[in-house]
């Protein structure tokens, strides 16, 4: 009986000790450990932009009026000068008829005065006045002709109608883009780069693109143009990156652009979130040992370590906030 009681007490003591050990262990922060490995260190400049044809034009209305005719031509080829849409021009046409009637009257009046002059019944001043009146009306006709032309919207270039915005019966506002006409290839990406990053961007640099439409495909281009003047308000500079002929990207797609400004092969890399104030936490058993490192190229996902770390050593990634040198850890593989 005595032995049985001792056994029970010992079992309970072991359970309590185990629970205490488990409780103490569970209080240690759980972290992932990543081994430092060799790879290519890449320094990039981030930008956002959209895909556009190299040669294209936005076709907008210059006046405000109702659409009475519009082509069903998305995807169709058009030539320069082809009619894309017409606006309601009844009022301006009526004004033109009035001007034409006045022109006809003034022409006959000028002819009548000319005949009177030959008979000595009119003065040269009357003839000049009739001529000036006719010229004034003819000037108004020229202006009215230009106004009427604005009611017919035509293609400014040869190309394909990439997009149409507008329907019969809608009111076209002045400046409203109704069509986008262009040549589908070649394509380019037009992006905005922060002004503090633009000194690192140069012609010919490789640009890597990411879009949700092609999440697992490598998409790239090359810098073909850098605008000489930035946007003071947005504090950005516009860049253009030429795309290869076989790119799957389509006009109008939005992309994230990463301009590769520097590359270094066979560099020792650790995740970016493992580095805090030029230091990493190296995993030493169940402890974290803080170690100062010298870093080189900083990328979005990885940082080059020049000194202070060896290949294969595991570092805490990401390093938890408030972690201290010697802290106990529960290490899991990423």
Automatic annotation (TrEMBL):
- Provide the alphabetized UniProt keywords: Membrane, Transmembrane, Transmembrane helix
Give TM regions.
7-25
* Superkingdom field: Bacteria
In terms of Pfam families, this protein maps to: Beta-barrel_RND_2, BSH_CzcB, RND-MFP_C
A GO term for molecular function: efflux transmembrane transporter activity
- Residue span, CzcB-like barrel-sandwich hybrid domain: 56-181
- InterPro entries attached to this UniProt entry: Beta-barrel_RND_2, BSH_CzcB-like, MdtA-like_C, RND_pump_MFP
Q: Which GO terms describe its cellular component?
A: efflux pump complex
Limits of the CusB-like beta-barrel domain: 189-260
Q: Where is the Multidrug resistance protein MdtA-like C-terminal permuted SH3 domain?
A: 266-316
Task: Please list the coiled coil stretches.
Answer: none
What the record says about family reads: Belongs to the membrane fusion protein (MFP) (TC 8.A.1) family.
What name does UniProt use for this protein? Efflux RND transporter periplasmic adaptor subunit
